[in-house]
Automatic annotation (TrEMBL):
GO MF term set: DNA binding; DNA-binding transcription factor activity
Residues passing through the membrane, by range: none
The keyword Protease is assigned to this record: no
A Pfam family recorded for this sequence: LysR_substrate
Keywords of the record: DNA-binding, Transcription, Transcription regulation
HTH lysR-type domain mapped to chain residues: 2-59
Keyword Electron transport: no
Family stated for the protein in its record: Belongs to the LysR transcriptional regulatory family.
Species annotation: Actinomadura darangshiensis
Descriptive protein name: LysR family transcriptional regulator
PROSITE patterns noted in UniProt: HTH_LYSR
Amino acid sequence: MLELRRLEVLAAAAREGSLAAGARKLGLTAGAASQAVAALEASTGVVLLTRLPRGVRPTPAGERLVAHAEAVLATLHRAEAELAGQNGQSIRIAAPPTAVYGLIPGVLTRLRATAPELEVTVLELEPGPARAALRAGDCEVALVNHSALLAPDLHGPWHTVHIRDEPVYAALPPGHPLAARADVAVGELADDPWLTQPPMSPCQELIQHACAAAGFAPDITATCGDYRSILALVGAGTGVSLIPELALTGLATPPVALLPTRPRISRRINALVTARTQTTAPARAVLDALLEYEQHR
C-alpha cells in the first residue's frame, strides 16, 4: 500500500522542481522529504525522480504516479471541504500579479453584489504554479496568461474560459530615438538591451517569441520579478521591454514611452476550471463576474 504522505511529498517535489522546495511547502525538512521519496522508490521498485544538478525532474514512471497522487489529494481536499461545511460557499482563485491588481479587484466588487455570501480567497501565483495548484486541488479557478499566438492549455485536464486579449506595448526610454513614433516594429529594437522577467516566466516567453518572430534573439541585460521594476529601469534608460496593458493599472503617468507594436502583439488571459468544478455555483459566479466585468470595463 502506498503511503499518502510519501505521495504528497513526491507531488510537491515534482510541482516545485526540487525536493527542498517541495519540503518547504509541506513544512518538512529536505532530509525528511528525501527519505520519503527514497522509501516510495523502494516500495515501488522504480526510480521516480531524476536528480539534476539543480533540482529534480519526474521520470516517466514518476509522472504517472504524480498524476495519480494529485488526483487522490484533490479528492481528499474536496472531502475535507465538504465535511467542514465549506463546499458551495467558498472558492479559491489563483491569479498572476497583474491580474491581482488589474482585474481581481473589479471582479470582487461585482461578486459582492451578485454573490454576497460567497467567501473568496485569492492566491497570487504565476501561471505555472497556478496550473499546478488547480491540478492539486489547491484552488478552484486559475487565471493564466500567455501570448495570444500560443495555446499551452488546449489539452490540459481542465475547461478553458477565454477572458480577454489585452494589448502589449513596447516600452522605450523617453529619450529613445523611436520614442516619438506612433508605433514600432519589434525588429527595430533588435540592437537594444532588453529587460524582462526571469526565464520560463510568461513575460520572458512572450518577449522571446516576439523577438524570434522578428528574426533575432533579445540581448537580456536585466531580469526583474515585477513589471513595475521593469518600467522603472526602462524609464532610467537601461533598455526596452514589452508591457501588457494590465501591468499599467494604477500608473497615472508611466515613466516610459509606450508604443503599440507593428504588427500588434496581444496577451491572452484565460480562466481554467476542472470539469468537476465548472458547474458548481461558486465557480459559475466567479466566471460570470469575470466575463461581465470584462464586458463592461
